[in-house]
Amino acid sequence: MSNISRRQFIKTGAAALAGISIAPNIILGKSHGHVSPSDKINILGVGIGGRGASVLNGLSSQNIIGLCDVDWNYSGHVFKKYPKAKRFRDYRIMFDKLGKSADAVMIATPDHTHAIIASEAIMMGKNVYCEKPLTHTVYESRLLTKLAEKYNVATQMGNQGSSAPGVRKVCEWIWNGEIGEVTKVEAFTDRPIWPQGLNRPEISQAVPESLDWDLFLGPAQYRDYNSCYTPWNWRGWWDFGTGALGDMACHILHPVFKGLKLTYPTKVQGSSTLLLSDCAPSAQMVKYTFPARDNMPKVAMPEVEVIWYDGGLKPMRPEGLPAHKDLNDHGGGVIFHGTKDTLICGSYGINPWLLSGRNPDSPKVLREIQESHEMDFVRACKERPSNRIQTASSFSEAGPFNEMVVMGVLAIRLQSLNQELLWDGPNMTFTNIDPNATVRSVIKDGFTIKNGHPTFDKTWTEPVNAQAFAQELIKHTYRDGWKLPDMPK
């Protein structure tokens, strides 16, 4: 074995070790918790300055062989932490240079570039960890779901609460019939904690030397640089992010999606503060309607409404809630209104409790994850596809779930139609938008005070066909030079 690496041996001569692509420690005679260097997987990181730095911390026991970020000033502290990793600005060059050596790719770029980077990684046969929201659009979510299935790679979305005890407890109580049938759920977040409801800046600024602005834009349509967009405030701008809904619903609504076994919504409505053409509103409400699902042995799954609030809005306090009890737990909360009891939990599904005060000892229903969200992904990467145990938020679940999340963005941006929108999930289309209907939004609010009196002189976009606008939100037209792969059949 002196002239062949253990990785090469496994690829060429250890196919008989069924169920293992990278041999676990027990085969090497290693004690539990001791990992030799040859057990580690090779990881590439794309988008490392912000949330990506935290994810890499969770993966730092592995080999971080390449790091990519469009802003080398913002990401400089991460480059210093992993001095052996090769540095890149363009992920495509990194994939060309290091793709053959990599086992997995971690993606924590702005929302609008998740799908194009993840799809390329998957088609290279790489395992993918992608931060939430999984994608910017419904179509992109469907694409990653199908690509992950086709290429049979390990995947994980970065909604870390899905690996935590709270989500498991919520499912245990619901599936055991502890709260009865659920026909209404309310959820909220205290975000945004970045500016939203902003007019598009009218002046351009010089691009910092440390930033490749064209690569930051990626598939988004060109606009001049302004410091209000990056490195962090991009979440509030429609071209790059999905606002407070996309940022936090992947955490807060996950126990709802999983616990109630939701599929595609059939109806959606949105409402918000002033809707601007470029920036998410300061506060939003979205109501989803989901059809009845197959009943479980101990509880029925009837039609259910899921109502989302953000920007400081909250549901009305349920009857019987203790006085002064704050429903905000770690940035948000969920209220499951059952026919027998009311279940309440915080963001990430944390700290579930019943309004009745009961604490039922219901049967365990989900795999208990012993390691972190990130390390459970590593575990899945090391298993052969034929024997792999899926992660808590693999794309097979995270993809359909993320479709639900970004549906809320569609509802908000189409609210001027003044109607409940009917959704055909399998075909990714609205079925009740009049072919002649148009929509428009505000470019800038034009607020001034004249002689002591507040005045609005709003500048509006030109009316556009609502069906065409909706289709563009469902599946973006990418900028020249950027293209998604075809949808697998």
From TrEMBL:
**Pfam families assigned to the protein according to its UniProt record, in alphabetical order:** GFO_IDH_MocA, GFO_IDH_MocA_C2
Limits of the Gfo/Idh/MocA-like oxidoreductase N-terminal domain: 41-158
Checking PROSITE patterns in the record gives: TAT
Which residues does the UniProt record annotate as the domain Gfo/Idh/MocA-like oxidoreductase bacterial type C-terminal? 204-289
Q: What InterPro entries does the record tag this protein with?
A: Gfo/Idh/MocA-like_OxRdtase_N, Gfo/Idh/MocA_oxidrdct_glycsds, Gfo/Idh/MocA_OxRdtase_bact_C, NAD(P)-bd_dom_sf, TAT_signal
Which GO terms label this protein's molecular function in UniProt?
nucleotide binding
Membrane-spanning residues where? Answer: none
* Name under which the protein is recorded: Oxidoreductase family, NAD-binding Rossmann fold
Provide the species name.
Bacteroides faecichinchillae
